[in-house]
TrEMBL record:
The keyword Transferase applies. Keywords: Transferase. One of its GO terms (molecular function) is protein-N(PI)-phosphohistidine-sugar phosphotransferase activity. Residues 5-148 form the PTS EIIA type-2 domain. NCBIfam families: nitro_reg_IIA (TIGR01419). GO terms for cellular component: cytoplasm. It is found in: Cytoplasm. Its EC number is 2.7.1.-. InterPro entries: PTrfase/Anion_transptr (IPR016152), PTS_EIIA_type-2_dom (IPR002178), PTS_Nitro_regul (IPR006320), PTS_SugarTrans_NitroReg (IPR051541). SUPFAM superfamilies: Phoshotransferase/anion transport protein (SSF55804). It is an enzyme of class 2 (transferase). It comes from mine drainage metagenome. The lineage of its organism: unclassified sequences, metagenomes, ecological metagenomes. GO terms for biological process: phosphoenolpyruvate-dependent sugar phosphotransferase system. This is Nitrogen regulatory protein.
């Protein structure tokens, strides 16, 4: 599972406007729903349910909200660079400005976990995150996310 298998140029948002975690999740759910053809409310509810289990704010300004959806045929990702960092109840209590949303079919099992690990590994790379924070265009962000040695590591 490569990052390029999860996202497309259309699923990269260079300047997402949100002032809260809930608003960010709503906006991500809206955009994801358009891409995957499922109702926005369904996507939002799955993300909210997952956040109730514990924050997906993993630290260093990064959040990886995720969930499993019925009627989804494959894994889908959506990456957003926030216009301004927001409180995401992160484990390090730092605001978040990079979000990688991951949606999986209910039957995904290990593939879901492998995709989460791949995204996490990529976003743990401080140099990658620095470049993502300095890139203004969707095309540039997509290139950084998909053309990186960390995305191909086992």
């Amino acid at each position: 599972m490569e990052i390029i298998d999860l996202i497309s140029p259309e699923s990269v948002v260079p300047n997402l406007r949100a002032t809260s975690k809930k608003q960010a999740l709503q906006e991500l759910a809206r955009r994801a729903a358009d891409l995957i053809g499922l109702p926005e409310r369904t996507v939002f509810d799955v993300l909210l349910d997952r956040e109730r289990l514990g924050t997906t704010g993993v630290g260093n300004g990064i959040a990886i909200p995720h969930g499993k959806l019925p009627n989804l045929e494959r894994l889908h990702g959506l990456f957003a660079r926030l216009e301004k960092p927001i409180n995401f109840d992160s484990i390090d209590e730092q605001p978040v400005d990079l979000i990688f949303l991951l949606l999986a079919p209910e039957s995904a099992g290990a593939d879901h976990l492998k995709a989460l690990a791949r995204v996490s590994r990529l976003l743990r790379d401080k140099a990658v995150c620095e470049k993502l924070r300095g890139t203004e265009t969707a095309e540039g962000l997509y290139a950084l996310l998909t053309d990186n040695p960390a995305t191909r590591a086992a």
